[in-house]
Amino acid sequence: MVRNNITAARKQPSESSLKEILSSFWDPNGRVMMAVHRGNWKQAPENSLAAIQYSVVAGADMIEIDVQQTADGVLILMHDETVDRMTNGTGSINEMTFRQLRELRLRQYQGGINQPLTNYSIPTLEEILILIKNKVMINLDKCWDYREQVYEVLLRTGTVSQALFKSTASAAEVQLFLADKIEQPLYMQIIDDSNPEMVQDIDYICAAVQPQAFEICFEDEADERISIEVLDRIKSNHCRIWTNTMWDSICGGHSDIISRVDVSEGWEWHIRRGVNMIQTDDPEGLFAYLNE
Question: What is the pTM of this model?
Fold first, then answer.
């Protein structure tokens, strides 16, 4: 059974495949879309140019990246606020210049002292956007505090339509950011342990902000956030639903790992619930499942 009307040709990205991805994204009832977490870090250092390229080859619709800002205002990719885990250096990114950071080398996979150094350096956001332009979408994490600077880079690279901002911020704060933009940014509202009360405000958020999607994080499948009632309310507002399957505590145990053992309790569980965007650390596995 083919769960998505996409073919292996998607592995050769082109402007036409981006058109299909964007068309699907804008259809709230469209096919299940795959987002790859920090790039395909099982093939290359997370958040590296190579990890992003491997994600494209793996069939990603969207790639989640983490953005930090250097002491001299350059936007770079790194999940942590320090370089300690992922490089041969130490220190806080916001206290280092881009030149200092560029001299460092990334450690393989998810880093750590036991992982070997690679020849890859820390990429800039602009380099990543140039790489993915006309290929796939990008999901922007860790950068809400400097969203205006990120937006300027999107404008400069002509990738506004490919980039999805997200945050746990209030509707008023999001409205302020989205207002009066030359090109309208895409936005996804996160509901997690920091703002569970937002499930009561879904209709208001949709009216005020008009997000394209909601990201739902939940530790227990009995959580109200992932209830059929809440998900139906999101769908009735013509928004997509995004969940994460990288580890148990953000998906009620219905993770990538369990998907490899019993897919009905993993990715399939999310899809039965009405989820149509899944962020994964197993892009090859999820892509194969969606195209069985």
Answer: 0.94
